[in-house]
């Protein structure tokens, strides 16, 4: 368990601080550097890194939801002195702030670099995420779709290749044609209600066309909405963040993809209401007689004036194209 996974922010009551003061608690001392957590009267979370005389002081930074400055700290609960103060202003960034803290602690413990230089490097890596925190609530169908992509990412692909490589293949949030892409394998992820069976909506005539290189597979996930189910969208996000906690590059890439996918932890209270039980899952080879409509389906191409084509496929009778029905099966990666 990482440092900030085991730390409880509930130990810091914002009501005990007033004005610019902080309620603080020491988290860890690593390579002689004190790392402190704090909360102010607004409920903003702070990670503070102790400086000693002569050490580099990073320039003040301000992005939406995150600020970095140097301040003097004289509150009970931590050694008095000068600290780098990384403040998170939005609940949507709480999980990412913990990852930043773990990243900083990890770098300090590995190479003992100047704390100011470490903070500058780490925060710059995360800056793109903080400028993209989404605010709108995902629809029920969008939540289920994102859950399915994360299920394939963590439960399937991430068990076969390093997580950083798996996250780099998650290209759907970046606007790619297929949800997961590499030079040899592309995967389109689809989710469906178990009450309908493996019936999936396909958007457009290019979604199931093969990539220029490699083969195409479709991952089918059937879920049921049950109040007593153990899975949720926030739950699988937290699971992935825990997996990525020891790899700062994977963690930063994951947060970037989640942001681009429209996910914001500020809505977790609402997202937790959707409880999902995984009923069936499977990876299908999109080849031979796989049910699909592509551009070559039309002898003269897509008819002029046709702006949009959507259709449903039923995989119930296509078990012969099923490559794997569980993550432990052998399948192409």
What do these coordinates show?
- The chain folds into two domains: 3-130, no CATH class; 140-324, no CATH class.
- The mean pLDDT is 89.
- With 333 residues, the chain is an alpha+beta fold.
- The protein has a six-stranded antiparallel beta sheet, with helices on one face.
- It is built from eight helices and 13 strands.
The rough form would be described as elongated
Total tally of structural domains: 2
How would a crystallographer describe the biggest sheet? 6 strands, antiparallel
* Helix content estimate: 25-40%
Round the Cα radius of gyration to an integer and report it: 23 Å
Strand tally: 13
What is the structural class?
Answer: alpha+beta
- Taken in chain order, the helices and strands follow as HEEEEEEHHHHEEEEHHHEEE
The strand order across the widest sheet is 1-2-3-6-5-4
Terminal Cα span? 29 Å
Runs in which pLDDT lies below 50 for 5 or more consecutive residues are none
Mean pLDDT: 89
Compute the number of helices.
Answer: 8
Amount of beta strand: 25-35%
Q: Please give the oligomerization state of what you see.
A: single chain
Question: Can you lay out the helices and strands and say which pair or pack?
Answer:
Layout: H1 3-6, E1 23-30, E2 33-39, E3 45-51, E4 61-63, E5 66-73, E6 81-88, H2 94-111, H3 115-130, H4 140-156, H5 163-169, E7 180-181, E8 185-193, E9 199-203, E10 215-225, H6 233-244, H7 248-260, H8 268-271, E11 276-285, E12 310-314, E13 322-324
Parallel strand pairs: 8-10
Antiparallel strand pairs: 1-2, 2-3, 3-6, 4-5, 5-6, 7-8, 9-12, 10-11, 11-13
Helix pairs in contact: 2-3, 2-7, 3-7, 4-6, 5-7
């Amino acid at each position: 368990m990482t440092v900030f996974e085991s730390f409880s922010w509930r130990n810091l009551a914002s009501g005990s601080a007033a004005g610019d003061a902080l309620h603080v608690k020491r988290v860890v001392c690593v390579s002689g550097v004190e790392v402190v957590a704090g909360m102010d009267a607004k409920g903003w979370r702070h990670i503070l890194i102790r400086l000693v005389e002569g050490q580099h002081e990073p320039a003040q930074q301000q992005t939406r939801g995150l600020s970095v400055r140097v301040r003097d700290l004289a509150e009970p609960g931590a050694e008095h002195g000068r600290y780098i103060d990384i403040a998170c202003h939005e609940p949507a960034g709480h999980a990412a702030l913990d990852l930043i803290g773990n990243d900083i602690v990890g770098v300090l413990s590995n190479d003992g670099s100047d704390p100011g230089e470490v903070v500058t490097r780490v925060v710059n890596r995360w800056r793109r995420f903080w400028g993209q925190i989404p605010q709108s609530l995902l629809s029920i169908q969008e939540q289920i779709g994102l859950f399915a992509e994360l299920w394939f990412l963590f439960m399937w692909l991430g068990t076969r290749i390093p997580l950083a490589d798996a996250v780099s293949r998650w290209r759907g949030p970046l606007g790619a044609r297929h949800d997961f892409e590499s030079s040899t394998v592309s995967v389109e992820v689809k989710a469906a209600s178990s009450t309908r069976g493996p019936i999936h909506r396909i958007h457009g005539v290019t979604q199931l066309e093969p990539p220029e290189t490699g083969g195409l597979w479709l991952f089918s996930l059937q879920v049921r909405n049950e109040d007593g189910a153990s899975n949720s969208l926030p739950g699988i996000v937290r699971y992935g963040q825990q997996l990525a906690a020891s790899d700062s590059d994977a963690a930063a890439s994951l947060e970037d993809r989640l942001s681009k996918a429209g996910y914001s932890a500020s809505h977790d209270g609402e997202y937790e209401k959707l409880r999902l039980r995984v009923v069936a899952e499977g990876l299908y080879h999109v080849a031979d007689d796989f049910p699909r409509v592509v551009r070559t389906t039309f002898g003269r191409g897509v008819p002029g004036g046709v702006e949009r084509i959507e259709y449903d496929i039923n995989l119930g009778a296509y078990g012969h194209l099923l490559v794997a029905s569980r993550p432990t099966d052998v399948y192409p990666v």
